[in-house]
Amino acid sequence: PRYKCGISKACPEKHFAFKMASGAANVVGPKICVEDNVLMSGVKNNVGRGINVALVNGKTGEPLDTKFFDMWGGDVAPFIEFLKSIQDGTIVLMGTYDDGATKLNEEARKLIAELGSSSITNLGFRDNWVFCGGKGVKTKSPFEQHIKNNKDTNKYEGWPEVVEMEGCIPQKQD
User: Fold this and answer.
1) Where are the domains of the chain?
2) How confident is the model over 51-73, as a mean pLDDT?
3) Against a cut of 0.85, is the pTM above it?
4) pLDDT, tens digit, for every residue of 112-161?
5) What does R_g of the chain's alpha carbons equal in angstroms?
6) Which residues, 6 or more positions from 59, have their beta carbon under 8 angstroms from its beta carbon?
7) Is the dihedral of CA 82, 83, 88, 89 positive or negative?
């Protein structure tokens, strides 16, 4: 049998299936899939250098928005405004591509930590990171993977290997 987004097992009732991958070096963009709907990918041509973000309605699983923010050559201010505008009950999926950390400041990191991230405070230059959290969550998300950029262990010249993650996101209940 094939499960939504190609994950390894079916999700229980009132859960949304998701699968995501960070970018590979500066060559292959990240991919984010929720409920068999590919929200962001290189094929869709809607990914870019920095932090790629997909927003999903926590009750219905419907896609709300996708954007990417260049954290190498761009400005962190639009990213902060975007993070502040996310509505309560929204599922937030993020994946890095190329470099997702250089322009991140304390305010941006705090806003991402409030979505349930525990690794964002340690995210560094060219680290690979994928994260799924939510606006208004009270706990740290179990859905997070982080690989440090380390010249001794990097899979690609100057970049760590791709991080992939799959799982079942609980549907928001009233």
Assistant:
1) 4-159
2) 97
3) yes
4) 999 999 999 999 999 999 999 999 988 899 999 999 999 998 988 888 89
5) 15
6) 89, 171, 172
7) positive
β-sheet with 15-21: strand ranges across: 37-40, 31-34, 15-21, 164-170
| Amino acid of residue 116 | G
Residue ranges of the alpha helices (H) in 39-105? 76-85
For strands 90-97 and 50-57, give the pairing.
Answer: antiparallel
User: In Å, what is the CA distance from 26 to each residue of 1, 145, 171?
Assistant: 34, 19, 34
Dist. CA 45–CA 48, nearest whole Å: 8
Q: How far apart are alpha carbons 127 and 138 in whole angstroms? A: 26
In angstroms, the CA 153 to CA 46 distance is: 30
Average confidence score pLDDT of the chain: 95
